Amino acid sequence: MIARRTTVLALAAGLAIPLGAPAAARDDAVEIVEPWARASLAGRNSAAYMTIVNHTAAKDELVSASTPVAKVVELHTHLMEGGVMRMRPVQAIEVNVGEPAVLRPGGLHVMLIDLTRDLRPGETIPLTLRFRNAGERVVDVPVMPAGASGPAGHGRGHRH
Amino acid sequence: MTRPRRLALVVTAAAVTGGAGWMLASAWLGPEPRPEVAAALPPGIAIGGPFSLLDETGRRVTEATFRGRFMLLYFGFTYCPDVCPTELAKMAAALDLLGAAAEEVVPILITVDPGRDTPEALAQYTDLFHPRLIGLTGSEAEVAAAARAYRAYHARVATGPGPDGYTVDHSAFVYLMGRQGEFVALFHPQATPEAMAEAIRRAIAASPRLPNVTTTGERS
After folding, report:
1. A46–B81 C-beta distance less than 8 A
2. What distance in Å separates residue A77's CA from the closest CA in chain B?
3. ipTM above 0.85, yes or no
């Protein structure tokens, strides 16, 4: 009981190390929840996914991203038109207050273009995210198997 | 979103750069248990047919190469970062769900980007998903012919400078073809591995393996 209360107090004070969410970056402004990227091959492309929570009182935007493992990084979405998937770049990804931005397969994603090396399942890659208001955040992104459909702990082939 | 009350497979003519073709605009099954699976086509609409392509070892293969087994087929490309991995992973998961029955199924990726997807590139890429997944490529004309037979839409879209500065829009359907290469089912991108596996199981049950099945004789 005392231990639990201590934990609660520590959390309330913002002192606790986030244990449950691996590689989650957290500060007062934006929180990156369950980031993951797909395994892929050098010279090919990959995609990174995550949920972005805005803890401020004002709308924010993810405006760009970069990583040392890809020559180009772009923000993309998919438009599904009658079974045809059209992938298109977007200028920014809005992160509204009280409405997390969800980047996931088949939708919004951070596209890692022209990988400088293979991305192997089990490793993590650094990804720098730039927000219009919250500024720059560096996230350690776990690499999941190429066929993964979600972050660690979400079953293979599982669809939401 | 309202769905049609009955099976409606809408096939729309689309002018595609490099040649006019038919495109599968959408496939819906009405209020059925598996709305993502279309098991019938409108009259006069055919999917499938002959193709001549190269496998991962550079060997020439045709639809006859896989006769006697089911083909679980997808059109995609190895530079595709999101949709293709998602669909290929679902195919792989469906095969795993089938257990030993998966031996009756040949999972195939036909590239819509033959300029970059060499047999070697496909060999590396398909291994990321399933050891039995086969990648097929060919000349631009051979790939276009295969895509046309399956009414698979694909169009190159420039994304930036340089030879690699393009992506390929493409339809994201998975096809299940029968032992004689005939159309069995079409899976919409919303289909789950479970739905795929179930459709494959039913197809296998409806078409048990028979030695020396005779065909109409039109194909050699």
Report:
1. yes
2. 10
3. no
CA gap A138, B14 in Å, rounded: 44
**A125-152: per-residue pLDDT in tens?**
999 999 999 999 999 999 999 988 888 8
**How many CB atoms within 10 Å of residue B58?**
11
The domain limits of chain B are 36-206
Quick: pLDDT tens for B109-147. Answer: 999 999 999 999 999 999 999 999 999 999 999 999 999
- What six digits make up the tokens of A135? 């500024």
Q: Which of the pair, A145 or B24, is modelled with greater confidence?
A: A145
Residue A84: which of B78, B160, B169 has the nearest Cβ? B169
Place domain B36-206 in its CATH homologous superfamily: Glutaredoxin (3.40.30.10)
Spatial distance between the Cα atoms of A53 and A102, rounded to a whole number of angstroms: 9
Compute the residue count for chain A: 160
Domains parsed from chain A with CATH numbers: 22-144 (2.60.40.1890)
Residues 6+ apart with CB under 8 A from A9: none
DSSP A155: P
For the four alpha carbons of A117, A31, A78 and B131, in that order, the dihedral sign comes to positive
Nearest to B124 by CA among B139, B109, B102: B109
* Structure confidence by residue, pLDDT tens digits, A14-69: 444 444 444 444 457 999 999 999 999 999 999 999 999 999 999 999 999 999 99
Q: Could A157 and B89 be called an inter-chain contact, meaning their C-beta atoms sit closer than 8 Å?
A: yes
